[in-house]
Amino acid sequence: LLSLPPVELGFKYFEMFPQDKEPLWTNPCEYYRHKDLWPVNKTCDGLPDFIVVGPQKTGTTALYSFLSQHPSILSNKPSPQTYEEIQFFNSHNYFRGLDWYLDFFPQREKPNRTLLFEKSANYFDSEVVPKRIATLLPRVKIIVLLMNPAKRALSWFHHMRYHNDPTALNSTFREVVTASGDAPSKLKNLRNRCLQPGLYSQHLVRWLDYFPSKQIHIVHSDELKNDPVQVMDSLQKFLNVQPHRNYAQHLRYDPKKGFYCSVMSDGQTKCLGQSKGHKYPAMDAESERYLRLYYRKHNINLSKLLASFDSELPEWLKYELKQAD
Ligand code: A3P
């Protein structure tokens, strides 16, 4: 039997099968032969039961914080680079492998009761993420948050300014969203990153290619903002988590912050940091008109798609559909 030395053989293999260069991690516990090879010190219950996938600026941090309060729900440990988000499935971190991902999850306190989760807000609109998640975690539950995509774009633009992005600081919102093909590449790039996550129907269809709709739960961001207790009630039912937590006792509206915040054991409220829910000017009329047209077709498609989920049309979408008539 003739063969090359191992490293050369590896190079030869990828020369012959370039499509295999990117790994696609499967769950070693899903197949008995792989499970037999899985070292004894590794468990099969260290991966998440549900994932909050975003998109960015839809209230993902508030939802993450409310979920983390639940006595039977444990979030991932923070990442030194990306804080509460692991950002495994959408980035170079994926190539660090399964052990790297597993290290972020704590041990379940009560193995049959505790649920593990992570939230990475960039997962929602990534081309590769649904396939990667479905391959590793075919039964994981997916949580998506939706709000008016034009308002999401404005919030994202101000988030970029808050974080001193030079292009955002040197441009108005209108200049960013209306940037044309011959605009400087940095402006075009900012525009794409600002608007693209809001093409909800396009992204949801991709998730539906890999997950049945009953495995996906939609949270409407306006409801999360105005009535988080109700949102947490239906989310707990979807997750089938015990015991049922009465969030009315643990969340309180803070008039100064203008949002619901967590009630601490001393009765004080603890709100999210300054970068969440800060004040900025309302959208100018021209950007509003432009974005209404830009998202029109996608919003119509979204209204049809939402019928396949157990989800009512949110008020913003009913309003946008009326404008489109
Ligand atoms: P703004 O800062 O534009 O108001 P994300 O955490 O996904 O980045 O989303 C941030 C948005 O969450 C904020 O956007 C804010 O409107 C919204 N939000 C919803 N509930 C909130 C809460 N309880 N506290 C703070 N922000 C909340």
UniProtKB/TrEMBL annotation:
<feature type="binding site">
    <location>
        <begin position="276"/>
        <end position="280"/>
    </location>
    <ligand>
        <name>3'-phosphoadenylyl sulfate</name>
    </ligand>
</feature>
<feature type="binding site">
    <location>
        <position position="155"/>
    </location>
    <ligand>
        <name>3'-phosphoadenylyl sulfate</name>
    </ligand>
</feature>
<feature type="binding site">
    <location>
        <position position="260"/>
    </location>
    <ligand>
        <name>3'-phosphoadenylyl sulfate</name>
    </ligand>
</feature>
<feature type="active site" description="For sulfotransferase activity">
    <location>
        <position position="57"/>
    </location>
</feature>
<feature type="domain" description="Sulfotransferase">
    <location>
        <begin position="48"/>
        <end position="297"/>
    </location>
</feature>
<comment type="similarity">
    <text>Belongs to the sulfotransferase 1 family. NDST subfamily.</text>
</comment>
<feature type="disulfide bond">
    <location>
        <begin position="261"/>
        <end position="271"/>
    </location>
</feature>
<protein>
    <recommendedName>
        <fullName>[heparan sulfate]-glucosamine N-sulfotransferase</fullName>
    </recommendedName>
</protein>
